[in-house]
Specification:
Radius of gyration of chain B: 18 Å
CATH architecture of chain A: Orthogonal Bundle
Number of strands of chain A: 0
Helix content of chain A: over 70%
CATH class of chain A: Mainly Alpha
Oligomer: heterodimer
Number of helices of chain B: 9
CATH class of one domain in chain B: Alpha Beta
Structural class of chain B: alpha/beta
Largest sheet of chain B: 6 strands, mixed
Largest interface: A-B, 19 and 24 residues
CATH architecture of one domain in chain B: 3-Layer(aba) Sandwich
Strand order of the largest sheet of chain B: 5-6-7-3-8-9
CATH topology of chain A: MetI-like fold
Shape of chain A: globular
Order of helices and strands of chain A: HHHHHHHHHH
Number of helices of chain A: 10
Strand content of chain A: under 5%
Shape of chain B: globular
Order of helices and strands of chain B: EEEHEHEHHHEHEHEEHH
CATH topology of one domain in chain B: Rossmann fold
Helix content of chain B: 25-40%
CATH superfamily of one domain in chain B: P-loop containing nucleotide triphosphate hydrolases
Number of domains of chain A: 1
Chain lengths: ~230, ~240
């Protein structure tokens, strides 16, 4: 309990200290998480909708694969990405290992199936019905698609919030591909893990509280946007 | 809108669910499609609406196939209508918005149709807060706001209270009487068929067994199956 009280006090002090390193870590965490969520959203939302409303021969297998991908162990993803981008890897010439870009790549691989699966579930449930309504009221294909996206906005926002939650809280994959390098790839989750290993529980909890606070603020913004209807 | 159905067949998993050789639905008529469950009534309406593809045969609309102009001139009210996650006003305005009608005209037409259906008080209400009866009224308002040449109604009063049923029927009838639209209503409710329709088609196992004026079909059925259905001997 003492650690938690100490952590709350430290969190307030850290935020008020305007320490460059701390704000750098917070900034990088936000940057990689938001970037990976954005990229994943751009890729996953249209595919999730198509999977939900279209039928094709291998659809069942694709959905099974998608659900499997949703529960991918982050460390495994980190390891695979690392093997690809490490110096001797297939994509080694990109020289992105231990950079924020590597973290974004790993997070995109983790977040994309989550967003896709959530959007797919909504589109499967209501997609056909929404499209039918659109067509019977005179909408063309483009108008029906726009309506479908608008009507699925709650699912889409939920997917983004869930995906963002996965990205900001990720530690295993981020540690493997980013390396927790001070001032370069150190994010809030990896710094918490490091501080815990160093026995600095108060500081670890302080960073954790800041992480929670940021998540709360971002989720509140997304929730507010979703309430737009 | 004048409809001509010719050699229409629809199969699901190898099973024939619809088999209509020849059926004409004249412009301006009010046709009720009655029949037991699984008769193919809803499938027929969905094929006419272009939501389900016909396996074989054709449906022609004023002599032509299903095209954009035809689609722009017909609407369908489902048994359980889906209202968009927005206000009642925006729901009713949607068919006008997709037709790029001017804002002022949209407002005038939506207000007018809400007035006629006595749902003006619901204007700014969110669609998901409506009762079953109100939902059906909004769906009807949304379907008739464009004044379609063909109005398709698939069990439009199946899930609402008796009071709302009569109000809905009144409005459907009023819409039909005001213009020259063709109205096709699928109904389980024989009394509704009698109250609303000029013509009746009785369907059984995918086929139109008998069709004619409502008076003839209800009072002087020619086919034994029709007679049994009207007498309540074939379960709905």
């Amino acid at each position: 309990m003492a650690h938690i009280i100490e952590g709350i006090r430290d969190a307030i002090n850290l935020l008020l200290s305007f320490d460059k390193e701390i704000y750098g870590i917070i900034g990088l965490s936000l940057y990689v998480s938001l970037a990976s969520t954005l990229i994943s959203g751009i890729v996953a939302i249209p595919i999730g909708i198509v999977l939900g409303i279209k039928s094709f021969p291998v659809k069942k297998a694709v959905i099974r694969l998608l659900y499997t991908m949703m529960s991918l162990p982050p460390v495994i993803v980190g390891l695979v990405v690392f093997l690809f981008i490490s110096r001797n890897g297939l994509l080694g010439n990109l020289r992105i290992v231990y950079t924020p870009t590597a973290i974004i790549v790993a997070q995109v691989l983790l977040v994309t199936p989550i967003i896709m699966g959530t959007v797919y579930a909504g589109a499967r449930e209501r997609g056909e019905e929404i499209q039918n309504v659109a067509y019977t009221l005179g909408a063309n294909r483009a108008q029906a698609l726009i309506l479908l996206i608008k009507e699925l906005r709650v699912n889409i926002f939920s997917a983004i919030v869930t995906g963002y939650g996965r990205a900001i809280s990720e530690v295993g994959a981020v540690m493997v591909v980013g390396g927790n390098i001070k001032g370069h790839t150190r994010v809030m989750t990896t710094v918490i893990a490091m501080l815990k290993n160093m026995g600095q529980y108060g500081m670890a909890i302080a960073i954790g509280i800041i992480l929670l606070l940021i998540s709360f603020i971002i989720n509140s913004i997304l929730y507010k946007l979703q309430q737009g209807d | 809108m004048d409809l001509q159905i010719t050699n229409l067949q629809k199969y699901y998993s190898g099973r024939c669910v619809l088999n209509i050789e020849n059926q004409r639905i004249k412009k301006g008529s009010f046709l009720g499609i009655i029949g037991p469950n699984g008769a193919g009534k809803s499938t027929l309406v969905k094929i006419i609406a272009g939501l389900v593809e016909a396996g074989n045969g054709t449906v022609s609309y004023n002599g032509s196939g299903l095209n954009t102009a035809v689609q722009q001139n017909m609407t369908l009210v489902f048994q359980r209508p889906y209202l968009l996650r927005t206000t009642v006003f925006n729901n009713i305005a949607y068919p006008l918005v997709v037709r790029k009608v001017k804002r002022q005209e949209i407002s005038d037409r939506v207000n007018s149709v809400m007035e006629s259906l006595d749902i003006r008080s619901l204007k700014d209400q969110k669609a998901w807060t409506l009762s079953g009866g109100e939902t059906q009224k909004v769906a009807l308002a949304r379907a008739i706001v464009i004044n379609p040449s063909l109005l398709l109604l698939d069990e439009p009063t199946a899930n609402i209270d008796p009071g709302s049923i009569l109000v809905m029927e009144e409005n459907i009838k009023k819409f039909h009487e005001q213009g020259n639209s063709t109205v096709i209503v699928v109904t389980h409710n024989l009394q509704q068929g009698k109250r609303l329709c000029d013509d009746i088609a009785f369907m059984h196992k995918g086929e139109i067994i008998e069709s004619g004026s409502a008076d003839d079909v209800f009072n002087h059925p020619k086919n034994i199956l029709t007679e049994k259905f009207i007498a309540g001997e074939i379960l709905i």
